[in-house]
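Researcher: Sequence recovery benchmark, item below. Answer with residues only.
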């Protein structure tokens, strides 16, 4: 029988590991304090953010471990995010913790579908999420969330600045370049004008506190993409491709663009990897070839996040304004998309952990 005191509890906690970092809670300095009285143990944790995919598991593991030795005791666990210093562009989107760009070399590969489902999956897990549709060539997020034709609420500040409020759907705050720009306008627009629209989206939309802001970028690697990726403090980028050799050349260009602007690539997602018929879910038809995504991620030394099949439910979910990951009847795609989302969250946590390890160097001139 162990004696109930702080040392005993700390020793028990030393067996619990952070699942992404593979280090114990002590090693990642996660235990802020442990308070014990006769009736209860209260533990305050500070974990590397984003914590939505792991906090519950860690809490469960702790409760389980303590209950082995002190059955029946009340255990309260409070979890908060560790502060991660933000180095670049402090003043842009200061209330947003993690900005993730979803990018692709070319259109039609499922970039918006992935962005929509990623945002919905994160919100489903309890995160506060925004989704910014910056695809000037084909803003499709309003369709995918069933909010086409919705207007952003706006107000004017005393000094005459116009502020817009994102449209909220399924717990996701949505703003689209499509809300502020006429259709077909993109083709005739030049860089500086577009830059103006993006500045509006960055400065004048009241996102509020967000754990994640997902950007659906315009496809390609031209000036617009370069400007956008340089202007905002991106936490990382996710690149979407199909398995076809023909789309891989574009992916390589995307990867080198992000490397050039020093944005971390969280990984490559291969979409439309194979077709799964709903009446024969055990079948896989490799319509667009095989293995392209994994190949390109290996040769560029970026993580491979997984394969997303082509399914009828995904297409109809997109068209009907209800992302497939939210559909409780879809067993094929939902689990795959949630697991890819969890891999993206892990990649961010690993990145944030290493940012905390590096001393911040202050240069005074
Ligand atoms: N995994 C998938 N299964 C079925 N349909 C898909 C899948 N991914 C994308 N689609 C469909 O393909 C079309 C193009 O996808 P979209 O996400 O709009 O591509 P992008 O944003 O790259 O142009 C859409 O109609 C979408 O519903
Ligand atoms: Mg799109």
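Model:
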């Amino acid at each position: 029988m162990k004696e109930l005191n702080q040392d005993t509890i700390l020793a028990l906690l030393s067996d619990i590991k952070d699942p992404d970092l593979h280090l114990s809670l002590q090693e990642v300095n996660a235990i802020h304090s442990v308070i014990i009285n006769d009736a209860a143990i209260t533990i305050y944790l500070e974990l590397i953010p984003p914590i939505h995919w792991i906090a519950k598991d860690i809490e469960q593991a702790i409760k389980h471990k303590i209950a082995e030795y002190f059955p029946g005791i009340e255990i309260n666990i409070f979890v908060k995010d560790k502060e991660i210093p933000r180095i670049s562009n402090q003043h842009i989107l200061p209330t947003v913790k993690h900005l993730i760009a979803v990018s692709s070399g070319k259109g039609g590969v499922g970039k918006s579908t992935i962005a929509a489902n990623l945002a919905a999956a994160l919100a489903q897990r309890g995160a506060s999420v925004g989704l910014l549709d910056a695809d000037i060539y084909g803003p499709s997020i309003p369709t995918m969330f069933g909010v086409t034709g919705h207007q952003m609420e706006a107000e004017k500040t005393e000094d005459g600045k116009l502020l817009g409020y994102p449209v909220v759907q399924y717990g996701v705050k949505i703003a689209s370049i499509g809300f502020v720009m006429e259709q077909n306008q993109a083709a005739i627009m030049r860089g500086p004008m577009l830059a103006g629209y993006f500045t509006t989206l960055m400065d004048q939309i009241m996102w509020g506190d967000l754990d994640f802001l997902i950007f659906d970028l315009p496809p390609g690697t031209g000036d617009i993409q370069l400007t956008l990726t340089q202007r905002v403090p991106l936490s990382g980028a996710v690149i979407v491709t199909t398995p076809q050799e023909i789309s891989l050349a574009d992916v390589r260009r995307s990867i080198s663009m992000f490397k050039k602007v020093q944005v971390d690539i969280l990984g490559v997602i291969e979409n439309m990897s194979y077709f799964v018929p709903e009446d024969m879910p055990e079948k896989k038809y490799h319509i667009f070839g095989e293995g392209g995504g994994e190949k390109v991620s290996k040769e560029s030394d970026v993580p491979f996040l997984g394969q997303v099949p082509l399914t009828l439910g995904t297409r109809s979910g997109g068209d009907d304004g209800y992302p497939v990951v939210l559909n409780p009847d879809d067993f094929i795609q939902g689990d795959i998309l949630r697991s890819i989302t969890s891999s993206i969250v892990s990649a961010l946590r690993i990145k944030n952990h290493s940012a905390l390890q590096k001393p911040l160097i202050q240069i005074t001139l």
